[in-house]
Amino acid sequence: MSYTKHVRKDLLEISSYRLDTDFPSEAIPNLVRMSLNENPLIEKPKLTQILKKVVAKVDPRDYPEPHARIAVDAISKFHKIDPLKVLVGNGLDDVLDRLVRTFVDKDSGVLVTEPTFFMYTYYTQLCQGKKIEVMLNADFSLDIEALIRTSSDAKLVFICSPNSPTGNQFKKDDIIQIIEKCNSIVVIDETYVDFAKYSMLELTNTYDNLIVLRTFSKAYGLAGIRIGYLIGDSGLVDTIKKTVHPFNVGTIAQHLVVEALKNHSYFKKRFKAVIKERNWLIAELKNIDGIIVFPSDTNFILFKITNGQSSSQIQNDLKQKGLLIKDRGKIPMLENCLRVTVGTRASNKRFLRELRRILS
Fold first, then answer.
1. What total of structural domains would you count in the chain?
2. What is the 3-state secondary structure (H, E, C) of the chain?
3. Is 1 part of a structural domain of the chain?
4. What is the domain-level CATH number for residue 77?
């Protein structure tokens, strides 16, 4: 019997999200992953200390607090907002999934600025929604007029700021214009905001059509724990909760949120360390012939190969030397571009040394 006749027809046409290049099946000596924007500048002994404290506190035989109440309370106190405005999920992907599920059904419009994070499109496809694409300007800024004009057909408008994979944070006034002039729900993904200039979070008290997304995976170095959250109008949040099962976030993860926010002064120093290292790496890359380096408000750097070599070949050559970075060259507007995560100084020097060798 062929199982495919029982599967939703639209699902058969959707490609799985693959991470083969980030998690190679073959053994690579001295592997350093600089492709997923993790944060190796958070010191593992500090995280181990926090984790030991949490594990000693919890009883794994007990179910977790429903709807991640422990984490919700900690986040609401940290941001000084009503806990009814907060929804916590098992990673930001889980939050995105619930958000799109709530508002998108067959042929619902979802506006996405491109190039940007692929998962907005992926979850739209899963709900049989219709992606509406507005390209960024040549300088990677928002095309305000096109966004506002096109948003009339969209239930959701996704803006990643700072944007992945371009790395830039959009102008605050531009985003406010979109929020005020769109009749859609505007979702601002602030995954990388701890490395940037400003946040839109406080404006969730002003605009009831604004949702802000955050995660502990990047800046806080807790990618393996899977904690993401959204903040928005309490009515919107209450509606989204209908798609969330009660035990969606484990006890250890919830208590790690509490401890991470208690230790925010430590983490803030490490955010600044990433920014300092990023600026150093940008300066070093600019001294290499054959590439163009783009500005960054994140913990990664986008650069373009201009010496005739292909981004895919350079990615592969670096992989052979144990360095994994992301090839973005097949994405519209990013021809021959690569993205590298800001690592430790030792990893960054190793990356620069191998890149210079390949380009020379």
1. 2
2. CCHHHHCCHHHHCCCCCCCCCCCCCCCCCCCEECCCCCCCCCCHHHHHHHHHHHHHHCCCCCCCCHHHHHHHHHHHHHHCCCHHHEEEECCHHHHHHHHHHHHCCCCCEEEEEECCCCHHHHHHHHCCCEEEEEECCCCCCCCHHHHHHHHHHCCEEEEECCCCCCCCCCCHHHHHHHHHHCCCEEEEECCCHHHCCCCCHHHHHCCCCEEEEEECCCCCCCCCCCCEEEEECHHHHHHHHHHCCCCCCCHHHHHHHHHHHHCHHHHHHHHHHHHHHHHHHHHHHHCCCCEEECCCCCCEEEEEECCCCCHHHHHHHHHHCCEECEECCCCCCCCCEEEEECCCHHHHHHHHHHHHHHHC
3. no
4. 3.40.640.10
User: Where a domain ends, among 262, 293, 328?
Assistant: 262
- Percent of the chain whose predicted confidence (pLDDT) is above 90: 91
Residue 254 lies in a domain: yes
Structural domain ending residue among the three candidates 236, 262, 288: 262
Q: pLDDT tens digits, residue range 66-103?
A: 999 999 999 999 999 999 999 999 999 999 999 999 99
pTM: 0.96
Tell me: do 221 and 275 sit in the same domain.
no
Q: What confidence score (pLDDT) does residue 26 get?
A: 78
**pLDDT at residue 238 tops 90:** yes
In this structure, the answer to whether residues 227 and 337 fall within a common structural domain is no
